[in-house]
Design brief:
- The structure is a homodimer of 243-residue chains.
- Chain A has 243 residues and is an alpha/beta fold.
- Chain A has one domain (4-240): 3-Layer(aba) Sandwich (Rossmann fold).
- Chain A has eleven helices and five strands, in the order βααβααβαβααβαααα.
- Chain A has a five-stranded parallel β-sheet with strand order 2-1-3-4-5, sandwiched between helices.
- In chain A, β3, α5 (91-108) and β4 (113-117) form a beta-alpha-beta unit.
- The longest helix of chain A is centred in the middle third of the chain and has 18 residues, at 91-108.
- The A-B interface holds A 14-15, 17-21, 23-25, 27-28, 31-32, 35, 37-38, 40-44, 47-48, 51-52, 55, 86-87, 194, 221-222, 224-226, 228, 230, 233-234, 237, 241, 243 and B 14-15, 17-21, 23-25, 27-28, 31-32, 35, 37-38, 40-44, 47-48, 51-52, 55, 86-87, 194, 221-222, 224-226, 228, 230, 233-234, 237, 241, 243.
- Chains A, B: Keywords: Hydrolase.
- Chains A, B: This is GDSL lipase/esterase, SGNH hydrolase superfamily.
- Chains A, B: It comes from Helianthus annuus (Common sunflower).
Chain lengths: 243, 243
């Protein structure tokens, strides 16, 4: 049984197997070492994620994931009084929901590597243009999300990770270190370009590698083809595949 | 428990989660509907694949995959008397190995959708340039593989699929329908460009959709976020998540 990593989150997770996506890159990096399962739910908030917890991470599982990324907050940080108001989750509740998720995952497996990822920054200019496209003239003149408010949620996420001593990736800060992050990393002011996906991939690999899940150090499931003796191929499989 | 598709094959399967890869595209298409597991083994032939069968597809599994792609032959068709001779598997044995794989998968699950994929065509000119790069002046002047021989293996693969009444994708023929296939679909005369990956993806989706595994018709695992009543989010989860 190969170790499993679960990517649990909203659309930024759901879209992570598109060309250049961070989920696909992780799968490639951990090829022959771990299975990457995507559990991304477009539009979901941390509040709605709670309804999925027992289904995706049953406490009775004999083979829980060895690592899980938890990537919510981009929708929670939607502002009240705008089109996306139905997704808004107050900051305190967002933090409490993350605590519930972390507690559940720890109950599921005390050794699971848990990685909380903050929402990415917001490019308000693009967010507004994007809102104008489906809603036309009726579009509100105000953005659905602001970078400042999303930053407060990002800090909340990092605080929860610290409370529990689990890992976190502060994507909101990390991305803003690079000049031109607005267009370089964001495709519509919120979702990620391939370069933005690359940042998530690199940061997640850094956390996994810094723990006990460095891909080069993990054993491959079966012998490399050059280890196979063409005259006696059974030998290396008998020696190595004792599963 | 979500249905699983397994991609079983050689390097063309192992590399299928690189940017634009066919495995990643399948994962994206079947997001929230099926899990795609990659079991690709660089350099492997159908002969060596037999050693993995019972490990990857244990007969005792209570949840066998609902679909499996079997994608060997590119290495089997390596010519004798060249650098890659150790990978050469005679045609008759290749066909017999495919039969053993299909029989095993059917024993694993009589309802499993099995898709045999033929090796892609070979661009001999690029294969030779590629061989020259690691071996320098010592490189043989003759190609490791020829398109003609690989075509014979591709036919063998299609014949085995017909014998068992399982699906097949004749990649060798399909790709050569397009002018300029040599550079358009192949990156080194053998492995696939993103466009080549696209052909595999489209052909596999065609087979899956033509059977009972059309992504748009398969149920999503959880409600779409617009189905959630923000005032009473529990309702739709109670109604729908009866797992």
């Amino acid at each position: 049984m190969r170790p499993q990593f679960v990517l649990f989150g909203d659309s930024i997770t759901e879209l992570s197997f598109k060309s250049g996506g961070w989920g696909a890159s992780l799968t490639d990096t951990y090829s022959r070492k771990a299975d990457i399962l995507v559990r991304g739910y477009d539009g979901y908030t941390s509040r709605w994620a709670l309804f999925l917890l027992h289904h995706i991470f049953p406490l009775t599982s004999s083979t829980p994931p060895v690592a899980t990324t938890v990537f919510f907050g981009a929708n929670d940080a939607a502002l009240t009084g705008r089109y996306s108001e139905r997704q808004h989750v107050p900051l305190d509740e967002y933090k409490e929901n993350l605590r519930k998720i972390v507690r559940h995952l720890k109950e599921c497996s005390p050794t699971m590597l848990i990685v909380l990822i903050t929402p990415p920054p917001i490019d308000e200019e693009w967010q507004q243009q994007y809102a104008a496209s489906p809603h036309g003239e009726k579009a509100m003149k105000l953005p659905e999300r602001t970078n400042e408010v999303t930053g407060i949620y990002a800090n909340g996420c990092v605080e929860v990770a610290k409370e529990f001593g689990v890992s976190s990736v502060n994507l909101w800060s990390k991305m803003q270190e690079i000049q031109g992050w607005q267009k370089k990393f964001l495709s519509d002011g919120l979702h990620l370009t391939p370069e933005g996906n690359r940042v998530v991939y690199e940061e997640v690999v850094k956390v996994l590698s810094g723990a006990w899940l460095s891909a080069p150090e993990m054993p491959a499931d079966f012998p490399h083809h050059l280890e196979i003796d063409p005259e006696n191929p059974a030998k290396v499989f008998q020696e190595r595949c004792l599963l």
